[in-house]
Amino acid sequence: MTRKLIHVAAAVIRNDAGEIFIAKRSDDKHQGGLWEFPGGKVEAGEPVKQALARELDEELGIQVLDCRPLIQIPHHYSDKSVLLDVFEVGTFSGEPYGREGQPVKWVSNTELVSYEFPEANRPIIDACLLPSTLAITPFNTKPDELLSFAESAVAKGAGGIVLRFSGLSDQSETLSAEVEVACRSLIGYCHEKSIFLSLNTSVSIANHLAADAIHLSSERLKSLSQRSDFAGRWLSVSCHNAAELKIAEEKGSNFVFLSPVTETTSHPDEESLGWESFSALLTEVKQPVYALGGVGPDDVNQAQIFGAQGIAAISAWLEE
Ligand SMILES: Nc1nc2c([nH]c(=O)n2[C@@H]2O[C@H](COP(=O)(O)OP(=O)(O)OP(=O)(O)O)[C@@H](O)[C@H]2O)c(=O)[nH]1
Ligand SMILES: [Mg+2]
């Protein structure tokens, strides 16, 4: 579709309790009656952050003190096309209220999913729920070492764990008793600590373990005939170029890893993208993207400036 995108600045406003401020669109508006992230159209020649600040003052009576890019979503409705340019606002002055008479609410992450938003907002909800850092287990991790890897990564700030190791993540469709016990124990640990957990494995094993999230290589994604084959909430895919990003989206992934961003010792032969190409690839993508390859927790801000949800890493979590 070649229709011109209407540039819209929208805000995920968080308070100290981690709740998010949402508003209800009036019935007579485009996508009326649904809930929204406050914001509005960017005027001609107006810098987007200025538009965001203006809209949040007009609609909620707050002054933005600091914000960072969260996600950009190009979306085509039947009647118009929008580019939702979403920022996370963590610092503001004033107390937000419905300055235009619109119903408003602070909601927790768990409550967020029960509100009805416009179709274009689905990836914003996913971006709100996902952590900014993921720790991937080294492939040679033994089943009895998984928990200590996870505990150590979490202690260093990891918001989620991706289990990828021999015995779970190779092409086999079966698990040894030892691997199954280890996975179930990790599922229990992450559930208890409210830590995001994804399994790099086959769809049948992930379903067998009742996993909430599965991570597939672009190669393995080919064996997923439809999204509903995986019963869990989250599907993510490893991508390296525009073609793989497109297929992941068509197959219904919620988020992707894009790699290698910089040179890595684990894959010295692979040509790295660099941040500029990484960011350029993101313009066509409407789902959260983790930077992977030669990055670690210290690169989160950098990754987010270039449009990423955050970083995923293996070895960076092992450093002392
Ligand atoms: N603010 C906002 N707009 C959204 C969201 N999701 C979404 O599809 N949109 C679409 O983005 C477009 C612009 O938003 P808007 O109606 O807030 O624009 P505005 O504040 O300038 O309103 P106005 O035209 O009444 O002055 C609308 O077509 C709306 O449907 C969202 O979460 N927040
Ligand atoms: Mg608005």
Could you explain the architecture of this structure?
8-oxo-dGTP binds at residues 25, 30, 36-39, 121. Mg(2+) binds at residues 39, 59. Keywords: DNA damage, DNA repair, DNA replication, Hydrolase, Magnesium, Metal-binding, Mutator protein. One of its GO terms (molecular function) is 8-oxo-7,8-dihydrodeoxyguanosine triphosphate pyrophosphatase activity. Residues 4-130 form the Nudix hydrolase domain. The structure is a single chain. With 320 residues, the protein is of the alpha/beta class. The protein folds into 2 domains: 6-121, Nucleoside Triphosphate Pyrophosphohydrolase; 133-317, TIM Barrel. Helices cover 27% and strands 27% of the residues. It has 10 helices and 15 strands. The protein has helices spanning 48-60, 109-112, 122-129, 146-155, 177-193, 203-208, 218-221, 242-250, 274-282, 300-305, and strands spanning 6-13, 20-24, 35-36, 39-41, 63-76, 81-93, 104-107, 133-136, 160-163, 196-200, 213-217, 234-239, 255-258, 289-292, 310-313. The strands form 3 sheets. Strands 8-9-10-11-12-13-14-15 form an 8-stranded parallel β-barrel. The longest helix has 17 residues, at 177-193. It is globular. The N and C termini lie far apart (50 Å). Magnesium ion binds at residues 39-40, 55, 59.
